[in-house]
Amino acid sequence: MFRHFLAAIAAVVVVAGCGRTGRDTADLHLSQYVDPFIGTSGMGHTFPGACVPFGGVQVSPDTDTIPHNVAGKYQADVYSLCAGYRWDDPTIVGFSHTHLSGTGHSDLGDILLMPTTGSLQLNPGTADKPENGYRSRYTHDSETASPGYYAVTLADYGIRAELSATTRTAVHRYTYPQGAERHLILDLTHGIYNYEGKTLWASVRMVGDSLLTGYRITQGWARENYTYFAISFSRPVADYGYKEKIRSAYRGFWRKFKTEHGFPEMAGRGIVCWMDFADDSDEPLVVKVGLSATSAQGALANLRAEAHGKSFEDIKAAAEGDWNCELGKISAQGTPDELKMFYTSLYHTMINPSVYCDADGSYRGLDGGIHKAEGWNNYTVFSLWDTYRAEHPLLLLMHPERARDMARSMLAHQQQSAHGLLPIWSLMANEGWCMSGYHAVSVVSDALLAGADVDGNQAMEAMVSTSNVPYLEGVKAYKELGYVPLEDSSCGASTTLEYSYDDWAIYKAAKALGRDSLAKQYKLRAQNYKNLFDGSGSFAKARYRDGAWKTPTDPRQTYGEGFIEGNSYNFSFHVPHDVIGLMGLMGGEDRFLCILDTLFSQPLDPVYYADNEDIEESCLIGGYVHGNEPSHHIPYLFQWTSDPAKGEYWLREIMERMYRPRRDGLGGNDDCGQMSAWYVFSAMGFYPVCPGSGEFVLGAPFLKEISLSLDNGKTFTVKAPEVSSQNRYVKAVKLNGQPYSKRYITRDDILSGGTLEFEMTDVPREKAAPSESDLPYSLSLEK
Amino acid sequence: MFRHFLAAIAAVVVVAGCGRTGRDTADLHLSQYVDPFIGTSGMGHTFPGACVPFGGVQVSPDTDTIPHNVAGKYQADVYSLCAGYRWDDPTIVGFSHTHLSGTGHSDLGDILLMPTTGSLQLNPGTADKPENGYRSRYTHDSETASPGYYAVTLADYGIRAELSATTRTAVHRYTYPQGAERHLILDLTHGIYNYEGKTLWASVRMVGDSLLTGYRITQGWARENYTYFAISFSRPVADYGYKEKIRSAYRGFWRKFKTEHGFPEMAGRGIVCWMDFADDSDEPLVVKVGLSATSAQGALANLRAEAHGKSFEDIKAAAEGDWNCELGKISAQGTPDELKMFYTSLYHTMINPSVYCDADGSYRGLDGGIHKAEGWNNYTVFSLWDTYRAEHPLLLLMHPERARDMARSMLAHQQQSAHGLLPIWSLMANEGWCMSGYHAVSVVSDALLAGADVDGNQAMEAMVSTSNVPYLEGVKAYKELGYVPLEDSSCGASTTLEYSYDDWAIYKAAKALGRDSLAKQYKLRAQNYKNLFDGSGSFAKARYRDGAWKTPTDPRQTYGEGFIEGNSYNFSFHVPHDVIGLMGLMGGEDRFLCILDTLFSQPLDPVYYADNEDIEESCLIGGYVHGNEPSHHIPYLFQWTSDPAKGEYWLREIMERMYRPRRDGLGGNDDCGQMSAWYVFSAMGFYPVCPGSGEFVLGAPFLKEISLSLDNGKTFTVKAPEVSSQNRYVKAVKLNGQPYSKRYITRDDILSGGTLEFEMTDVPREKAAPSESDLPYSLSLEK
User: Fold this and answer.
1) I want to staple B157 with a disulfide (CB 3.0 to 4.6 A). Which of A2, A105, A367, B117 is the partner?
2) DSSP A156-217
3) pTM value?
4) Contact list, B273 vs chain A (CB under 8 Å)
């Protein structure tokens, strides 16, 4: 292997745009290694469009929008069209402004723009007959995507479409062919997870001749999603009008006006607008779109604050600068393909969560009210069942200010919740209720323990409140019985495991805050996982209210066994806070290792996943399912045993097989950066198995050198000069030049700066019992 | 005739509640004369429920809510159910919080509450089978209504329901029978002008155990109407739940929750909530409802500001006090029936327009944004085609501060309008586009000329902008041709007459502001009415773009002749600003008088109104249609002739036949107070024929004595001690003791205080040519 580049070391400078004191690495142009198309085919569910790091606007092409009432299509489209874009689709419907990155359920796709020529068409048409609508064919040859920039040629119109973004605005540059009509469609009925009636209301108004403002409210996964917009044009609108696909009830203005044409405002449930521009200049049309969730005034203020007076090139350069700055916080060495996969993963960790407030701090809260974040930014898109594992720990390490704001956003959400609940799946001022657990407590606790500037008492109250909502999926019974019975939840077993870890996170925070009585209470709750093990040394099992075990059980079966997105074979290992305790329940180390081994090495019969939309054979390593998050920490569990080399072996397998720098290279939904954050951590050779412990459990590094430029000005470097697919085993570790026998490093180790060196080899270490003091955290070992 | 009471004269005091310096007349309890049921049957379209003067909340029983898709029912229900309540309906569906007073098109009926007992029913049921729903039978015997108070016994449940209100809140007191279940229904699908899907979205949340907040958005005549609410209960909610009549698209929370019961928040398009209260006390349940158009926080703040800590009796007493204070501004003498009709009319002039801002001044603007009225109140429900005639002139005279705020509200509306238009029909931050003209200019101009504290330049710009919107019903052609051609509007002739008067109002304002060029321009436009008269001495006629006259024409036909809500026979007189000019075009005084005479005396063939929902035989006096406003000033036009006694005769006929103190006593829709304001002025013996002229044209008083307590502390008294149905003719007039020959008095005459005495007789005055200097204003006479 050869070194592709050597990270230039510069003096400590403040880098504009990502607001950090650190090495000036922006000029390394690390964004060159990012390929936004990775994950756009197959399972990844990523989008190729333009955004800035954690930006609230993600402007991207949508390749289809099939209503869910097409027979048999509902589930497939809701799942496969999550990102709006599918690499294999032959047409582009248009460019919408909001996209989720890597989810398994879909929504958004707000405010679609599409430039066209020729006769005006106001329906999207269908992929098989694009000429019947405004959509266009395109080829991937004409497509370019890089951080902050996307471009494509719309083949049916000969229009070059380019996109870029700021935090709260998008900018479109449309180069129409000479002599052609210059139409622009604004379809307010378009959406991802679309269906007739999804748009509850849409409203537009022309303000002067080059500004359009409005909003729409949709009903979808986000139960009520308000998107206000302000759209400015680089040249006057010469003509415009609307089609009302759904007629309003009151038509009293019919007599007065021809609203189809030249009428400066329109509202309704099925509004499609068109604008025409004069063909009097070769200059492309530049369209700037400000978004807000609070008001049209907010959208306009955002547009003015972030895009006013800036050219397309200015905005594109700034977006690229922001990306290079953020990506530059981690400099890595490797082959072009390795760097592509690494930096694309790093890129994907910085799309969601997304800023969800106006430039002045105003934001829509969970209570539907408009609130103001003073001195911080409110964030949304918390896919917490996924992201508490590695995404949030990565952000806490590398983006402490954003991590603080995210914790504050969660606490605000809790205060605005009718249930007193921290977010489960925060989506545009809605609770999306997706998946199980109350994992926000993990994120809040970890942030609190890391010293983030959040109110400790408020955080504590929020966590306690969240974990005591009696009607939340079996919580009442969980508190009474120590587990969630099957009567209360079809996934009572996995939910018990999740609550158990979450309660441990609350315990850690309570302990740190000196709230002894709470600490005692939650330490007990943290051990509820034990109630799922029947003492036979087997897997976790679901139970009924009367204490009886579900029988028979099949640990390879995902459905109907009391687990969700993970069978008991995988999910039984979800005791990240007490691996030693778990090991005992499973029958001791030998049995534990045996089960781990067979999980990875024994193929899963297709009967167990044939009907499962998010598992394919290529996503499996034996019975290990990397695409579903409950397994993510499992390869690191070998570190609690005498045979960590086994984990090193499987980590390399996962890295190589689940993450390939190809369109269809992701072995599962990227899940708002969790899959990618796993990759980033694992490439560095450590992973936050148990967020809240302050520890990162060692694995095996993937790249020869990775260097973290930390916000505190320190640098932490991981070196593994001999690493390769063959040399996948760790022979020895040194921290800051000293031999290092612990199976983990701490957050403090990293934040202090220094060097972690792995000596790599192609020979697995011999099994050897670890000293207890070298083991990573386990509740059972706590003094 | 006997005096029913003698107005007590008190020292000048500040009266709390109606914020006025004047005689303390509140203790006269003039509200005793008000019968809110007048107009609730037949044409009046008034509601009997509770509100305070100009209050934003009008809580009132709704007696039916038939979806418009019941075959053949659409038009009838939209029309006859405008007020929500029809005297002849046998059941009450519930009590909703917003009602229009006397309109001919319908909307609102927001946030319906209904207390029930027995088995819980969540559908309203139907009038013929009320037992199939939550509605109840009732008898009028059990009903009471007075200003600020309404009560009824719900016969099916034995519940006594009482209502009162403040400006922004309603208070309900429900006395359930002992031992019965105590249900309360909140039906967010209910509405006036209701249909499946009218509710675009509704959202509710329980906050603690005795507060419910939420909102709904409806699509109706008000294109998008936002009603936020905060509902507090005098005792804890013991149990609650929802029915979702329309299922949401995303049901991802199903697994987690049983949302039907005890779940503290819900949202959707078809939400019906129920709450149960313990039967542990004889105390009635008191429910306070705060409304806001800006936010749930705003609704809660309004509730706290206006109702917190106040009992039902406190609020009722305050509402009655407010009414007595406002009604006390005019003290009148007459028989009980005369006083009932007079004070009920006065009451009906103070329901709309309605306050449309939070207690802190925040309000939803026409642009959908939230604005703040600093130091004034924003108003809505401007039915301007109706109310510019007498309602607004009455408010300007008697409520100058509110009139100023209404003018400011209109100017804010204009600034927020995508069209730059002053309101035509302002309805809850929407433009309702109802009827023709741009009559807000009349109101703004009149206010400006009266010295109201509005920005003159802003007002001028707003009026000029309004009158130059080219796509507003024929304005472009009107400016080019001097009339609105039939090609541009099916009511081009009447619209031309309306624009012509409106342009005169702009002319007057421009002149007063020294904007000479504008004044010249609008003085010309004000004469465009002339373009409808063909010189043959006939009626106004519609024209085509090429100048040709519509032919044949039938001046008795309302439809298809180029007029709206008025045939040419009536509408031709709509030149209030230049009666002398009109007289000339009609062929001189003799012909003018002849046409006026025949209008009143010659019956209209039923063929001309058989299909017309708003004209019945009882509403006609000859061919004069009092229920449609374009005629309102006509009986006063005799004052420009040598035979004013004819007008005095017909005025008395109109007063006696169109206004009877009975449920079905109103000869037309009350139209947001215009019909009633006509009555109030006419009872005093003068009427603002041409708002903006500063003149009130004399008629014939109806009551023996009426005294106005003006805001400036002055008192203006009209006396007619001998007046009766026989003594309907004016023999002589004195102003402040001096013989008075003018046919009008001025606003300044009134505001200076004094006494206007009419000597009445049963003998009509002999015809005598008036001196030109005694004539009321006419543009043609202007020097």
Assistant:
1) B117
2) TTTEEEEEEE-SSEEEEEEEPPTTS-EEEEEETT--TT--TT-EEEEEEEEETTTEEEEEEE
3) 0.95
4) none
